[in-house]
Amino acid sequence: MKPMKARTHAISGVFVFLLLGIFAVFSTVMVLLGAKAYKGSADRAADHNAARIAAAYVRSMVRSDDEAGALRVEDQNGVTTVAMENVYDDETYITRIYVCDGMLREWFTDAETEFEPENGEAVCLADEMTAAMENGLLTIQLRNADAWTRVEIALRSAR
């Protein structure tokens, strides 16, 4: 008598291959979904940080130049600026904060130089800025990626 051989079925090999294929497909889908979630999270964090940086920068600059008559909101060539005037060695200088070309910018120059928005130093991302001063309260709104950040500063020099 001959011993019986174990029969192998072609279906069991196909089943194993099919299982490995399904595992590979689901693994790829999970990696793609994870990458998309991470990108969305990173983008939101970047937008939030840009808004925080812009607000902190504006607040810091205004506080450092908060002197009687030194701050004003101006419209220069269609660009809203917060202008801060200082005198160094008997010469008047102006620091302007404004938004141009998708960036919050600072421009420091003597009072006689004509304003050229594109020449300012880029600080951080910002799409738009509005500013108003009323009764010693400076209100600045910065837009970045469809989110507005409002900064209200009660000027100490106005007291």
What does this structure look like?
The chain has 159 residues and is an alpha+beta fold. It has one domain (43-158). The protein contains one helix and eight strands. It has one helix spanning 10-64, and strands spanning 71-76, 79-88, 91-100, 103-110, 121-125, 128-134, 137-144, 147-154. The longest helix has 55 residues, at 10-64. The radius of gyration is 30 Å and the shape is rod-shaped.
Query: What is the strand content?
Result: 35-45%
Largest β sheet strand count, sense and barrel closure: 5 strands, antiparallel
Count of folded domains: 1
What's the tally of helices? 1
Sequence of strands across the biggest β-sheet: 1-2-3-4-5
Number of DSSP strand runs: 8
User: Which outline best applies?
Assistant: rod-shaped
Secondary structural class:
alpha+beta
User: What is the rounded Rg?
Assistant: 30 Å
Q: Helicity range of the residues?
A: 25-40%
Q: Report, as a whole number of angstroms, the end-to-end distance.
A: 113 Å
Regarding quaternary structure, how should these chains be classified?
single chain
Topology:
Layout: H1 10-64, E1 71-76, E2 79-88, E3 91-100, E4 103-110, E5 121-125, E6 128-134, E7 137-144, E8 147-154
Antiparallel strand pairs: 1-2, 2-3, 3-4, 4-5, 6-7, 7-8
